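Is this the right way to post structure tokens for a design question? Let me know if I should format differently. Anyway, here goes:
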């Protein structure tokens, strides 16, 4: 079954106005067959963000839920993985997904982060780390559901962790790609093909 709804999940300290989210929106809107595109502003607190995602999915019609595809960038990739593993969602595209985010989030506790897209500020709290640890799937299943796009010179995340964690998935590795992975725009045809869209 082809995808009829795409849920895009942005990364930590990002927004639906990021260039990757907007590039995805434009690609979806250009399709000959209408596809519903949803890109929420996610809360900085992991449990709240996951609750937002759950509420969106629970609010879909049965047909939309069956035809749901997930795209997640960085921390959004972690959330997309959590949702896919919990709900059996069959088509997921990830952009430099956060793997074991509780590990590096510990280093951010009590730090203030400014969102460059909307100017908002967030302070990472210690319980965020606990929530991430509790949410993380022990392993991924059905690797064929995952298309994983990685930058080999990601300055935030070690792309080799994703290669190991999503073993068996389809990988697209940009040898010069950083965390922003600007080459993602060129990968959008592969994302649409993964979702059986054209």
């Amino acid at each position: 079954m082809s995808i009829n709804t795409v849920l895009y999940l942005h990364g930590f300290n990002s927004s639906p106005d990021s260039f990757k989210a907007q590039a995805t929106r434009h690609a979806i809107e250009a399709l000959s067959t209408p596809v519903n595109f949803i890109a929420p502003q996610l809360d900085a607190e992991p449990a709240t963000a996951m609750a937002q995602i759950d509420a969106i999915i629970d609010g879909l019609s049965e047909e939309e839920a069956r035809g749901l595809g997930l795209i997640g960038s960085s921390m959004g990739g972690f959330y997309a993985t959590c949702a896919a593993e919990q709900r059996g969602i069959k088509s997921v595209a990830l952009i430099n997904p956060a793997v074991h985010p509780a590990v590096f989030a510990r280093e951010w506790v009590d730090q203030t982060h400014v969102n460059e897209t909307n100017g908002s500020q967030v302070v990472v709290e210690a319980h965020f780390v606990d929530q991430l640890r509790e949410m993380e799937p022990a392993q991924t299943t059905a690797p064929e559901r995952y298309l994983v796009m990685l930058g080999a010179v990601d300055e935030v995340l070690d792309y080799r962790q994703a290669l190991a964690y999503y073993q068996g998935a389809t990988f697209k590795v940009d040898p010069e790609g950083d965390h922003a992975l600007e080459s993602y725009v060129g990968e959008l045809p592969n994302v649409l093909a993964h979702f059986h869209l054209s």
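Format looks fine. Someone answered above. Worth noting: The chain has a mean pLDDT of 93. The chain is about 40% helix and 20% strand.
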